[in-house]
């Protein structure tokens, strides 16, 4: 029987960047997000296809991951989740309370096992979303967020033990060494993933497009904007989703994707995909072969925000 999880879905990612105006302008002018709300040094960016009040928050400061936000179905579930995490000695940033940031809501924040800030919330204001038009090359929603971890399996086990996430698939070296785990909190193949890296950092964040036509047009649009394509276009094996990775002005890897697999959790069995097989990384064979040079781009800078809660 499918796990009855208290975490319902991925809501948003929040990043701090020193080049705040440049980053905000890139995501609005080129990437296709809309500024739902702005304050001095703070911008809340929404996707036209998503009812979430925002899917990306940018803040002016030293480069870091501020937090990753998840949805919870009700206040009762917020209370149940907080009680569970408290009993398991998870370190809280703050207890359940009314949230004062844009969009409001009710929720709490904790540090994960490596010190990343996580938010769990419900009851926030939804925005009026719309269907993305055919051939409109803008994101529908935030698809997934991926971490680098120096302690891959320990990081993943924290999400399994405390949040009831499940591994959908894994990438492994030919000798069986784990390299990446894809984690789900609902029927979507993954909402987060964790990659083995030299340090804790953001690997990439991914934005869902309407379909392959809009995904391809979006990739072309970003190329014409002058952004560097790190890897793609192609189609992964794990998750069966398309990929086109770019570097944003702050040096973070960001992705356009579409057609991420939706699983029947009652019958799904995780696979371990050998990264030495070309089809593991790209079923189509259209992207450059994965190499250390490509992988290094997603190692990113060391996250300076571990066990330091963001001010907002």
TrEMBL record:
Transmembrane segments: none
Gene3D superfamilies tied to this protein: 2,3-Dihydroxybiphenyl 1,2-Dioxygenase, domain 1
Record-linked SUPFAM superfamilies: Glyoxalase/Bleomycin resistance protein/Dihydroxybiphenyl dioxygenase
Domain of life: Bacteria
Cited InterPro entries: Fosfomycin_Res_Enzymes, Glyas_Bleomycin-R_OHBP_Dase, Glyas_Fos-R_dOase_dom, VOC_core
Domain VOC: 9-123, 141-259
PROSITE patterns linked to this entry: VOC (PS51819)
One Pfam family linked to the record: Glyoxalase
PANTHER family: LYASE, PUTATIVE-RELATED-RELATED, SLL5075 PROTEIN
Protein name as catalogued: VOC family protein
Species name: Leucobacter weissii
């Amino acid at each position: 029987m499918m796990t009855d999880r208290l975490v319902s879905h991925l809501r948003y990612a929040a990043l701090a960047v020193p080049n705040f105006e440049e980053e905000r302008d890139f995501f609005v002018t080129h990437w296709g997000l809309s500024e739902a709300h702005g304050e001095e040094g703070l911008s809340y960016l929404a996707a036209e296809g998503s009812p979430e009040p925002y899917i990306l928050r940018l803040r002016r400061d030293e480069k870091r991951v501020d937090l990753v936000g998840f949805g919870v179905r009700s206040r009762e579930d917020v209370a149940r989740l907080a009680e569970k995490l408290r009993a398991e000695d998870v370190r809280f940033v703050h207890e359940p309370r009314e949230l004062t940031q844009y969009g409001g809501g009710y929720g709490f924040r904790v540090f994960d096992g490596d010190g990343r800030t996580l938010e769990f919330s419900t009851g926030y204001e939804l925005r009026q979303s719309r269907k993305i038009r055919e051939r409109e090359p803008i994101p529908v929603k935030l698809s997934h967020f991926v971490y680098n971890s120096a302690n891959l399996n320990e990081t993943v086990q924290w999400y399994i033990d405390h949040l009831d996430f499940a591994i959908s698939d894994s990438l492994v070296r030919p000798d069986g060494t784990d390299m990446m785990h894809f984690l789900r909190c609902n029927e979507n193949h993954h909402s987060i993933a964790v990659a083995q890296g030299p340090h804790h950092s953001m690997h990439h964040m991914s934005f869902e497009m309407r379909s392959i036509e809009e995904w391809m047009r979006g990739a072309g649009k970003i190329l014409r904007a002058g952004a560097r394509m790190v890897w793609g276009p192609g189609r992964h094996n794990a998750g069966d989703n398309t990929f086109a990775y770019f570097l944003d002005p702050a040096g973070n890897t960001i992705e356009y994707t579409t057609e991420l697999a939706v699983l029947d959790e009652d019958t799904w069995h995780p696979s371990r995909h050998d990264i030495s097989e070309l089809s593991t990384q790209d079923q189509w064979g259209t992207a450059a072969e994965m190499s250390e040079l490509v992988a290094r781009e997603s190692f990113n800078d060391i996250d300076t925000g571990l066990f330091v809660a963001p001010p907002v």
